[in-house]
Design a protein that fits this description.
Blueprint: H1 2-14, H2 20-24, E1 35-37, E2 39-40, E3 43-59, E4 62-66, E5 72-77, E6 84-85, E7 90-94, H3 97-130, H4 138-170, E8 173-175, E9 180-185, E10 192-193, E11 198-204, E12 208-215, H5 216-221, E13 227-231, E14 237-245, E15 255-262, E16 273-288, E17 294-296, E18 299-305, E19 311-322, E20 325-330, E21 338-339, E22 352-354
Parallel strand pairs: 1-22
Antiparallel strand pairs: 2-21, 3-12, 3-16, 4-11, 5-7, 5-10, 6-9, 7-8, 9-11, 12-15, 13-14, 13-16, 14-15, 16-20, 17-18, 18-19, 19-20
Helix pairs in contact: 3-4
Length: 364
């Protein structure tokens, strides 16, 4: 044991001490890049402002087509629900035999009255011609003149009755009051319906409107004529224009309606509940590529490149998406350089190698 201790002290005595210059010459090895990445700088651009809303699709105006004739049998129905009709088109027909017979009777009575009136006019003319001669008494002359006026009045009464019967005959044809699409039908062949009974409902000009439900603050930002986009159940976008903003707000729900005129579209049906958005202007926004944003634990992050190619993880708040870009609302300086390709594989403090992004090849 004593021999081993002596050897140890001897070795320490023989070994030369380290100088200060030798210690300073030892440097740690450079950090090896963990990933090759491409970078980008956020772009500032004007981004349109949108307001999302939901609401019902309703008919712009719905016309009720009813029966004007009273007590007639419905003989024919020419249209059904979903049919597109034009103004003045015959939708249904009532049995016209009785009305035609009454019209013929009235015309016969009119002819008889006109014949009697012609005779009365002739007698009146003769009476007026003999008044100066004294061949007829004043009382008899007055009788002839009165009979003439009565006969003329009777003719006018029968003519009025003829017009009524012709009008009733025209009412046996139910006409479309406007162009549009039939939305409901209650007419049944063979039914005897009273006057005023509803037979059809018609969406005028096939026009629909979106009645979007919005809060009072949102309604204040929407102006008449603004562009609105409605999404169909199949995912198609249909653009319309704001026709009117309701002047009142519901006291229970605290929401109001914004009326949007929509063009005719095969996928839009009255009664649907759809979503959409309103274009209410534009504002400056900070935009980055979607691959630059990494989602971890429910939060959004980007990686900022430092001077030594080390990355710093920054927590950011994102907003809207537009034209393949994502808006960064907060947490990112506008002049920062961030990792684009490969960001999802990095951690805070990693060292990276930056390369230029590949350029897209143009097809010959």
């Amino acid at each position: 044991m004593k021999t081993r201790i002596a050897c140890l002290f001897l070795c320490l005595a023989v070994a030369p001490p380290l100088t200060a210059n030798a210690a300073d010459s030892v440097t740690p090895p450079a950090a090896k890049p963990s990933l090759t990445v491409t970078v980008e700088t956020p772009r500032t651009a004007a981004l349109s402002l949108k307001l999302a809303a939901r609401g019902n699709l309703m008919a712009w105006q719905e016309a009720i087509v009813g029966a004007e004739a009273n007590g007639l049998r419905l003989a024919k129905v020419n249209v059904n629900v979903g049919d597109v009709v034009k103004r003045g088109q015959v939708l249904a027909e009532f049995s016209a035999e009785m009305v035609a017979a009454e019209l013929a009777q009235t015309q016969a009575q009119l002819a008889e009255a006109e014949a009697e009136a012609a005779n009365a006019v002739a007698n009146g003319d003769r009476a007026r011609g003999l008044r100066a001669s004294g061949a007829l008494t004043a009382q008899l002359i007055n009788q002839y003149l009165t009979a003439e006026q009565t006969a003329k009045a009777r003719v006018e009464a029968h003519r009025a009755a003829e017009r009524v019967q012709k009008f009733r005959l025209a009412q046996t044809h139910v006409l479309a009051p406007d162009s549009g699409v039939i939305s409901a039908r209650t007419a049944t062949v063979g039914a005897v319906v009273p006057a005023g009974m509803e037979l059809f409902r018609l969406i005028r000009q096939s026009r629909l409107e979106w009645r979007a439900e919005m809060t009072a603050a949102e309604m204040a930002r929407v102006k008449t004529g603004a562009v609105a986009t409605v999404m169909t159940p199949a995912g198609a976008a249909v653009q319309g224009k704001v026709r009117m903003v309701a002047p009142t707000v519901d006291a229970q729900t605290r929401t109001g309606l914004v009326y949007v005129d929509l063009p005719v579209h095969a996928e839009l049906k009255a009664g649907m509940f759809v979503s959409g958005e309103f274009d209410v202007g534009s504002a400056s926004a900070l935009l980055v590529s979607p691959q630059s944003v990494v989602v971890r634990d429910g939060f959004n992050y980007v990686f900022r490149i430092g001077a030594d190619n080390k990355v710093t993880q920054l927590k950011v708040t994102i907003g809207r998406r537009s034209d393949g870009k994502i808006e960064v609302v907060g947490g990112l300086p506008a002049d920062a350089t961030i990792v684009m390709t490969g960001a999802g594989f990095l951690n805070d403090g990693d060292t990276v190698k930056v390369v230029a992004a590949p350029t897209a090849k143009v097809a010959p």
